[in-house]
User: Fold these one by one.
Assistant:
Number 1:
Amino acid sequence: MPHTPDLDVSRIRAISLDLDDTLWPVWPAIERAEGVLHAWLAQHAPATAALFADTASLRRIRVAMADELPHMRHDLSGLRRESIRRALQQAGDDAALAEPAFDAFFAARQQVDFYADALDALARLAARWPLVALSNGNANVHTVGIGAHFSASISAQGLGIAKPDARIFAAAARSVGVPVDAVLHVGDDVAMDVVGALDAGMQAVWVNRAGLAWDHPRRPQLEVTELGALCDRLGCPAAS
């Protein structure tokens, strides 16, 4: 088994955190939002709702748009909006409805169900270090109700660069005024979060809620199945 590097807590001056599938499961939120979108289309663009009667068909357009518009792959909101526009056009509905339709989807997308350990862990971590949200997704920490815990929020959409590009990790470090090697990154995705952070010079924590086997030659400094264990390992006091 490859050697697991030791976590150096003394190096940590800030923590960056992934959002989707680290603080909440993402697919329930997306599926709920897709249901809201279809209901909106049924009311305002019935031809589109009929042509794309199941959410999977709309999702296929969304995937196709990512292939057609590779320059927008970092912009999940833009891709979703354009996929709605494409669906409206194919059904013969008014393409201008893409904007309000996306707004309905996006509002529902921000309704997330946190993992049981997430909110307590955020409070514990934020009491000790500045936290940076670092996400390729389009959730907004303020809209979902956790903005008070974060000193900064960096998104692929806003920066124009997505994980695992080292530049987005460097931007997270700059946002709180610390060197990149002083940041501990926490996330669930092996390539995007762990390997990306390690390549950028950060220490990394793999949040492995599903108990998967590690399958990459480089290893994180720490693996946890829930965020409370991370707080305990870092010596964070219990939230008051």
Number 2:
Amino acid sequence: MKTLGERIRYARKARGLVQQQVASHLGIARVNITQWEADQTKPEAKRLPELATLLGVTESWLLSRSGEDPQPTKAGKQADKSVSRIIPGQQLISPEKMPVYAAAQGGDGHVIVSFDAVDYVKRPAELESVRGGYGLLVAGDSMVPAFRGGDMALVNPHLPPSREKNVILYHTPPHGGDVEAIIKQLNGWNDREWHLQQWNPFKEFTEFRQEWPICHRVVGRYDAR
């Protein structure tokens, strides 16, 4: 893997993603990804942070192969099956536990998330072998009936955005400390904006991607106990 294109291709396949998924996440045409991987063109520098996050690598690895190579994951293979639904208890099949984070109600439908785990629970089938998968205790009622306060959203941070799926958008990556987040339905996006929807009260609106750069897919839900 001597070239940037070869490393992009390797990391994409390790994530189990197809070129169209990467292109959709970045809001560009699939041919751009094909050209990058063939070393015919290179991604703009401003796209490297988002591309690296999606592929689960660092910018340094993409540019110079600095650090360990990404290991294959099953996350991509689960993409088509990932829907926001209740997970039966019998599907808790992985002995490895995942962290659960709490959220406090903020203003205008926002929540404040502290990435100090408040609990650890067994992983559901949707998050088996997904490195970095986590649960988030939902605060507020802007997404009722999809989510009620106290429900746990099950999150796969590696899946690309997908239309008409629930997502959590962050102001900053969850690397520690308190960050602001919103959980909404994603209806679409472009280079500049996320097109979002909430249910209570019903509202369709947009947020700037520059202000909310991190998008994590919600793949399931536990009802509040």
